[in-house]
Amino acid sequence: MPCVFGRRMVLPPAPGRKSGSAFGMAATIDVDQEEENVLTASPIGRGSFAECSTRIEIFSEGRYRAFVQDLECMWRWEIHRDGDFVQEGCSLSESSSREAVGHVVSFYQRRDLGDVSRADVQT
């Protein structure tokens, strides 16, 4: 269990390791006040990037559209149905974003078909 002493955190040796081994040594991390604030939840809500100029449309078929945005460390994607936000996610590349969006949209399209067939049965 890490212990915090003022602005310094001390991590104990790994369990089952002798303190003299490379992986068994305790670690000391200096905690900067600015770094602590990074972990505080932001009161600013998540915003859709559907209106951003940095978005790239990667899917548009029927009721569904999908967009990606390069965040440098990952690609964020959003799916919209009839102009309304449905789901978001992230991937490591644009191509993996396209693959993920394809799977999710396929799920929603199959569900839409199921909703239509159930409505036909009820009438």
- The portion of residues forming beta strands comes to 25-35%
Annotation field: number of helices: 2
Shape label: elongated
- Report the mean per-residue pLDDT as an integer: 73
Taking the alpha carbons of the first and last residues, their distance comes to 62 Å
- Largest beta-sheet details: 4 strands, antiparallel
SSE order? EEEHEEEEH
Low-confidence stretches: 1-10, 35-46
Q: Helix amount, in percent?
A: 25-40%
Report on the structure:
With 123 residues, the chain is of the alpha+beta class. Helices cover 28% and strands 32% of the residues. The strands form two sheets. It has a four-stranded antiparallel β-sheet, with helices on one face. Strands 1-2-3 form a three-stranded antiparallel β-sheet, with no helix packed on it. β1 and β2 (8-11) form a beta hairpin. The longest helix has 29 residues, at 94-122. The radius of gyration is 23 Å and the shape is elongated. Residues 1-10 and 35-46 have low confidence and may be disordered.
Task: Using brief descriptors, characterize the structure shown.
123 residues; 7 strands
Summarize the structure.
This protein is an alpha+beta fold.
Summarize the helices and strands and which ones pair or pack.
Blueprint: E1 3-5, E2 8-11, E3 27-30, H1 33-38, E4 56-61, E5 64-70, E6 75-81, E7 84-91, H2 94-122
Antiparallel strand pairs: 1-2, 2-3, 4-5, 5-6, 6-7
